[in-house]
Amino acid sequence: MTAASDGVLHTLFHSEQGGHEQVVLCQDRATGLKAVIALHSTALGPALGGTRFYPYATEAEAVADALNLARGMSYKNAMAGLDHGGGKAVIIGDPEQIKSEELLLAYGRFVASLNGLYVTACDVGTYVADMDVVARTNRWTTGRSPENGGAGDSSVLTAFGVFQGMRASAQELWGDPTLRGRKVGVAGVGKVGHYLVEHLVSDGAEVYVTDVREESVRRITEKFPQVTVVADTDALIRVEGLDVYAPCALGGALNEETVPFLTARIVCGAANNQLAHPGIEKDLVERGILYAPDYVVNAGGVIQVADELHGFDFDRCKAKAVKIFDTTLEIFARAKADGIPPAAAADRIAEQRMAEARRA
Ligand SMILES: NC(=O)c1ccc[n+]([C@@H]2O[C@H](COP(=O)([O-])OP(=O)(O)OC[C@H]3O[C@@H](n4cnc5c(N)ncnc54)[C@H](O)[C@@H]3O)[C@@H](O)[C@H]2O)c1
């Protein structure tokens, strides 16, 4: 055993970040499959979380990522009000090089072996077409195409949920849930960002966008000529009089290079893991910026995939995603009551829900 894998085991069994119920190491020599399925909690129901396919530098790194992501899903699912615990799988390797139908089927058989304890979906490196293959081996695969009983693109509901979180943030700060007349900056106008812009424009917001891909920007400006395009994220966070900043590109958007310069009073966006490291949430509070926790407001996607298990119904999902408004307000209230940042308040509420489910 190497020091690195020793470290992972220590995390699993002894640290605050651990406490996972089960970790499954999967190997299929014939197809080259090496995967880790981590079940953090099944207190609220079967563990739900996507499958990441990624060329990890080491196997220990892959296990650590699976543990971390699975834990995050427990919190996200608890806050979304789903009857699901948190889990995540990682397949080790470069999908461009090793992804094959046989490998995905081998992976699906491991998901099947858990007999419903783990429900999978897409994540970085896996797509709807892959889930269609994985689903051939088990009943616990979501993120499938509509032709295969799935719900397809989750970004529609994700954007809708983020918009609900933003409306709740506006209610909290300005006493009115509308974004009408507010300056909102959206960083990243890909799948989720462009739907978010649509909501903002129809609500009467003054929208600013930036994206590294020309095509994403062009699609927005063709549809919404009134939107202002700025050069990059650095310029966006400094827009004079910006009211809301919505990170909708990559993780780590809130860090030492951005938080001190943000002109916005609210941060609410779709990107996962926006806080670059622990402590940034306190910097936001000190600057008087209201942060709507990422995993709470971007839960529309997971609400959608969870629904697939019951035969997908868009209206039922939308009704659940509307609740992101109330949940976000509940978090702000708890943050005030406990004198802690909203990110910490969200964690506290999620932990409470899981603890209550365990006791029941
Ligand atoms: N799609 C979903 O349902 C969903 C659900 C939950 C969370 N998220 C998260 O939301 C974020 C966006 O997801 P998506 O599905 O829209 O992805 P996407 O890849 O479709 O869009 C991301 C966009 O960000 C742009 N971008 C990348 N780096 C940038 C930078 N430095 N500055 C400006 N723009 C940049 C890309 O060019 C792209 O247009 C991701 O962090 C994702 O993990 C997505």
TrEMBL record:
E.C. no: 1.4.1.23
Binding site for NAD(+): 188-193
Cellular component aspect of the GO annotation: cytoplasm
Pathway linked to the protein: Amino-acid degradation; L-valine degradation
Glutamate/phenylalanine/leucine/valine/L-tryptophan dehydrogenase C-terminal domain boundaries: 152-359
Coarse class of the protein's main subcellular location: cytoplasm
Keywords associated with the record: Branched-chain amino acid catabolism, Cytoplasm, NAD, Nucleotide-binding, Oxidoreductase
Residues at the catalytic site: 88 (proton donor/acceptor)
Recorded superkingdom: Bacteria
Cell compartments where the protein resides: Cytoplasm
Pfam families xrefs: ELFV_dehydrog (PF00208), ELFV_dehydrog_N (PF02812)
Catalytic activity field: L-valine + NAD(+) + H2O = 3-methyl-2-oxobutanoate + NH4(+) + NADH + H(+)
GO molecular function: nucleotide binding; valine dehydrogenase (NAD+) activity
Presence of the UniProt keyword Calcium in the record: no
Entry similarity comment: Belongs to the Glu/Leu/Phe/Val dehydrogenases family.
Quaternary organization: Homodimer.
Entry protein name: Valine dehydrogenase
Gene, per the UniProt record: vdh
